[in-house]
Amino acid sequence: ALPYDLAGVRVLISAGGTREALDPVRYLGNHSSGKQGYALARAAAQRGARVTLVSGATSDPGTPASVEIVDVDSARQMQAEMAERAKSSDVVIMAAAVADFRPLSVSGAKIKKGDEGPAPIRLDTNPDILAGLVQDRAAGRIPSDTVIVGFAAETGDADGGVLDHGRAKLRRKGCDLLVVNAVGGGKAFGTEDNTGWVLTADGRETGLPFGSKTLMASRILDEVASLVPDGLVP
Length: 234
Ligand code: C5P
Prior knowledge:
Blueprint: E1 10-15, E2 20-23, E3 26-28, H1 35-46, E4 50-55, E5 67-71, H2 75-86, E6 91-94, E7 101-103, E8 123-125, H3 129-138, E9 147-155, H4 162-173, E10 177-183, E11 193-200, E12 205-212, H5 213-227
Parallel strand pairs: 1-4, 1-6, 4-5, 6-9, 9-10
Antiparallel strand pairs: 2-3, 7-8, 10-11, 11-12
Bound molecules: cytidine-5'-monophosphate.
């Protein structure tokens, strides 16, 4: 039987990839399928949580039952939705693949093939949504006991520094829990299976079994549930 250990807990999850417009018909995007974030939303709802999913672009992740879905396009739209909704959330999980950069300007008309060959695309830096949420919490805009979870997609294996990169990222981002995914060579992005580790700010490191994103979601939520303040769970 599924544990019902998140009953009434308000869980906010971002999933999928952001799209950064170049002109009315083109964008810069990524290959995120959204499947891991959607699996987390589904699993959290099954464990009794009240789940809101802020969803960027996805491919075929299925519609989770009993989950409120808010569709967004760009990183800045995702940031606005996450920052606002985090104020009334007990757990915030950034599973989305957020574009680090966006075109500096969005052309109002479709960009034409120029006589001088391709025009360069100039980029501006997007906000780091996860780091921003941690800052918002420190500044009191988000409740101090809200649990903030990040993801890290790292290439390589445990010996190849994936864990070291994960530990450094956990410190740099300041979140409470970081899910480290081993990616590259066909792993994680767009696939059905996933594996990795869960690192907590208090130094716990838990290996995740290789398996479906549903199984990953359930193991990740076990770790998240252990960080949710006792008073919240009935
Ligand atoms: O630094 P990196 O992109 O590897 O960090 C990944 C984590 O940070 C993920 O949880 C992702 O959702 C989040 N992120 C973000 N805003 C960005 C880039 C990444 O919130 N601009």
